[in-house]
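#lab-general

N.A. 3:47 PM
ok so I finally got the sequence cleaned up, no stray characters, all 216 residues accounted for. can someone with queue access submit it? mine expired

B.Y. 3:52 PM
send it over

N.A. 3:53 PM
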Amino acid sequence: MIATFLFEIFSALYIAWRYVLNNTTRIIIAILVCLAVFQYAEYTICQNLNISWAKIGFVAITLLPPLGFHLAQEISKKYSKILTTLAYGSAALFAGYFLLSNAISESVCGGNYVIFHYVLPIEWSYSVYYYGWLFVGLFYSLWRATQMNLKKQLNTRHALQLLALGYVLFMLPTTIVNVINPTTVIGIPSIMCGFAVILAVILTFFIIPRVTKSRR
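B.Y. 4:20 PM
back already:
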């Protein structure tokens, strides 16, 4: 957890130092920081340092789906204000609920991952929200990639394809683990964010060099 946290937080700092700050850069940094915050939250839970970090961690990962969708729009330079507002609006509702309520009733360190127990009504609606916007971001990236001019917009096309790959590598390994061992379903947030380090690598070393100018 600490190793992943350090990689993600230093990746965010490296990008801020190396590349011109624009909307694309800021969104990527925000994604990396959110991933890092969740890893640190898991660490504090396993060290019994502060139970409130469970709420903070969930707020951090709640922001990931709209940030990913927003990133796809920034890369393609094609925007949907309605969908963006809906994405961030729904994220704000869930984030506020996690912070101000007792929706997360318990968090347990399971060794390989952290198990979060939360109220059933919010569990199902949160899953629909989370996977719903992840799939919107995935298909939006693929759709926009097909519309890029192969000669003039090759970097943009590749960046969108890489982002789509990042989405798949964010979700697919967790799904495979759940199929092989159904008991791991209770650890989906933790397992998914563990595999998200692959997404962090793609963002840092493959996507941002294609879409943002270096200043170093």
